[in-house]
Structures are given as structure tokens and as C-alpha cells.
Amino acid sequence: MVYIHIPFCGSFCTYCGFYSEIADGRFAGQYVKALCTEISTRKEELAGKPDTLYIGGGTPSVLPLSDIGRVVRALSGAIPPGKSATSGFREFTVEVNPEDIVQKGPAYVRGLASLGVNRISMGIQSFDDGILHWMNRRHDAATAVKAFGILREAGMENVSIDLIFGISHLDDALWKETLDRVLGLGPQHISAYQLSVEPDSALAGMVKNGRYEEAPESQCSRQYDILCRILGDAGYHHYEISNFALPGYEAVHNSAYWRHVPYAGLGPGAHSLRIEGAASPEGVSGERKRYIRSWNIPDVRKYISSCLSGGCGAYPEESAGAGIVQTETLTPEQVAIERIMLGLRTDRGVESSCLESYADGSGLAKMIDKGFLVPASDPSFLRIPEKHFFISDSIIADII
User: Fold this and answer.
1) pLDDT tens readout for residues 166-214
2) Full DSSP string of 196-229
3) Which of 71, 191, 259, 388 is most buried when burial is the number of CB atoms within 10 A of its CB?
4) pLDDT attached to residue 321
5) How far apart are the first and last CA of the chain?
6) Minimal CA–CA distance to 322: which of 344, 303, 300?
């Protein structure tokens, strides 16, 4: 698993708290050069993680095809022969925004496909122009529909759409209409997230200044129930709290995150997880297995400077004073808790043995007794049933 972060956007959305910068051609070119340097520096590490590639952001589609091609070619040189970026990834996803696809047209999408991209994740968020304007999105509903048509016209068969619910001025009727419009398009995958107030977002300032009042929990819960019912009736597999897929189109890359599979993250703010002393992450670690998380600081200017001066991508223990990389070694208890928190977001669930070893015994028994935890399809696992997904945070808190 490889994640590449593109920290550029055409504008900042009202709700977004992720680190990004306004796109600038020359600056972005320097960033791509630095990113290719990090790829080269971490060549040995990347050689062991070639199954999936996800280019996210930010907004990767603000970059010209030539820049994305430079990154993919650099990565192709860092992975084993016979496993090139244009042929070897089981799943290669790129995030896009509708306005970029409409502006750049089918040729851009075909160009992505020629680089090996076989899955597109498009941030639509809403089909209501008023809500899109409030979100400070750069597209309208008509542009979103046109962009989806371009993806299909260019031969992209695996398309995921992002939506947001739980907005105080999004009523249930409009939410149902949104879902109907999505189903009319027929994407293979749908990610739907409840609006949250992120600390560094414009929305946080609006809440603080009294210019926005968060939707009540009853509204959010009701709209989540509507989401589950409508997509379930349409044949979508609800395989993770916020994710729905037509059978066979579940996200391979994200599913691996939820199973605690090792991954490499490239770019400012990107996280990585590596395991020392074992070939597989399955099972809670013993003394000989070390889970090490590392991340690049979220500062693109320092990232560029460090990479282009030879200090990019090295772990502190390998290159003291590298400057942009932070690390932590997880304890077995931290690994288990993360596995529980991630696994219980999915219909796969978590190994009963892991829960019994690391969860609070009385809390676990109570959750089972009340039906908040039930056997998964694999009887050695326990999961949260869909009807209780909305309160999963409180269920997990009671367990750990």
C-alpha cells in the first residue's frame, strides 16, 4: 500500500481541516520534484508495498497530467521489476474534483488510465447548488453530472462518489433527492460522511462566531438511517461505517488500512506504518514484532527544502536531524486498541481473541449482551451490526 499526498487545492472548502495550499504551477512543480526525491530515497521501503496506490489530497486533479506522470514513473523505478505502476497495482485510485474533469475533458481521464489508474474517487458532496455554494465548492450540480459522464465516456469503470450529510440546512427530503440522483448515475462506490467541525476549518470559525449551528444528533441519525436503507435497497454492500460498494467494488486500499496492514505515505502530512520482525501484521504483536508509525510534518515548504537538500524521507534513527519526519513505536496495547477501533468500523469486525485479550471485560460482555456486538461472517470475529453503526464511537468507548 502506497499513499501519495498532493497538498494543493483550487480553493478551500468551508468544512475542510486537512493541510493544503492554493495551487500554483511553479510551486507545484517544485513539489513534484521533491516528491520524486522522497520516492527515490525510500526505494527499499516501497519495494515491499506495491499492491495498491492511492493519490489523494488536497486535490490531485489540479495537477497537469505530466506532473502525475512524473510521480508514477518515479514510483515505477522504486518497485520490483515486473510490478510497474502502470501494470502491477491491483487498485490505483486518484481523487478528483468535478470542475477539473470538466475543464480537462476525456483526454485527461484517458491519460490517467494510461498511467495505470483504474479507480477514480470524485468529491461531489451535494447536488444542491445552494449547499455547494455554502461549502465553497467550485462546481455546481450540473458540473458534477457532466464530470461523471466524462469519466464514463473515457472508459473509467470504477468510480466512487463522496457525499456529506448532517448539515443543519440539509433537510431529509433534499437528502433523499441527493441519494436518488447518485443512484441515477450508478457509481460503483459511495462514501458518505457526517459533517464534522474540524478545528482548523472555516466552519469552526463560523460555529465560534455564531454563524453556523450544528445539526442535532437526531437529524444526523435519521439521515444516516435514510442513507443505509436507500443504498441497501439498491444493492450496495455497507462494508464500513461510511462506505458502500456494489459487490466486488469495495475499496482495496482503504480496507487494508482498517486491517492494520503496513503502508507507506509520501508527501507532507502523510503517515506510514511499518512492521519490523514479522512479515504479516495479522495477530497482536509479541516482543519480536515492532509497529512503527512515522509521518512527514504538514509543511510543504519545509518538505520541498528538506527533500531537495538531501534530507527527505529518512527516518530519524537513520538520518539524525532529517527535520521533517516524526516517528513513534506503538506498544502491543496501542496496536490492539487501534485494531479494535479500526476493525469495528467494518462489517468484517475484530477477532474475538483480540477483544478478549485487550478490551474491558465487563464492557465487552455488556455490549454482547445488548446486541451491540454480534458474530461476523467469520464466527471467530465480532462486529457491530449496521443498525448500531451510528453509535459505534460510544460502543467502542465502552469496550476499550
Assistant:
1) 999 999 999 999 999 999 999 999 999 999 999 989 999 999 999 999 9
2) ---TTSHHHHHHHTTS--PPPHHHHHHHHHHHHH
3) 71
4) 41
5) 28
6) 303
Average pLDDT, the chain: 91
In angstroms, rounded to a whole number, what is the distance separating the alpha carbons of residues 189 and 310? 40
Helix (H) or strand (E) holding 390, with range, is: none
Whether the pTM exceeds 0.85: the reply is yes
Cross-strand pairs, 190: 161, 244
Q: Does position 345 have pLDDT exceeding 50, yes or no?
A: yes
Per the CB < 8 A criterion, the answer to whether 37 and 266 are in contact is no
CB burial string 371-391: b at 16+ within 10 A, e below:
ebbeebeeeebbbbeeebbbe
Please report where in the chains the cell 506503538 appears, as a residue.
330
SS3 at position 368: helix
Tell which residue, 15, 103, 113, 93, has the closest CA to residue 62. Answer: 103
Q: Go through 118-149 and write b for each residue having 16 or more CB atoms within 10 A of its CB, e for each that does not.
A: bbbbbbbbbbbeebbebbebbbbbebbbebbe
264-274 burial by CB neighbour count: b if 16+ within 10 A, else e?
bbbbbbbebbb
Residue linked to cell 505530466: 66
Q: Count CA atoms closer than 13 A to 231's CA, side-chain side.
A: 31
User: Which strands form 271-276's sheet, in the order they lie side by side?
Assistant: 271-276, 290-296, 325-330
- Among 346, 362, 344, smallest CA distance to 354 is for 344
Strands (E), the chain: 2-6, 8-9, 21-22, 52-57, 91-96, 119-125, 159-165, 189-194, 237-240, 243-245, 264-266, 271-276, 290-296, 325-330, 350-351, 374-375, 381-383
Order the strands of the 243-245 sheet from edge to edge: 237-240, 243-245, 189-194, 159-165, 119-125, 91-96, 52-57, 2-6, 264-266
Query: How would residue 281 be classed by pLDDT, with cut points 50, 70 and 90?
Result: very low
Alpha-carbon dihedral sign for residues 74, 79, 82, 87: negative
Alpha carbons 272 and 244: distance in angstroms, whole number: 25
Cα(99)–Cα(147) distance, integer angstroms: 7
The set of cell numbers assigned to 200 is 482548523
| Closest by Cα among 399, 396, 390 to 344 | 396
Report d(CA 206, CA 217) in Å as an integer. 19
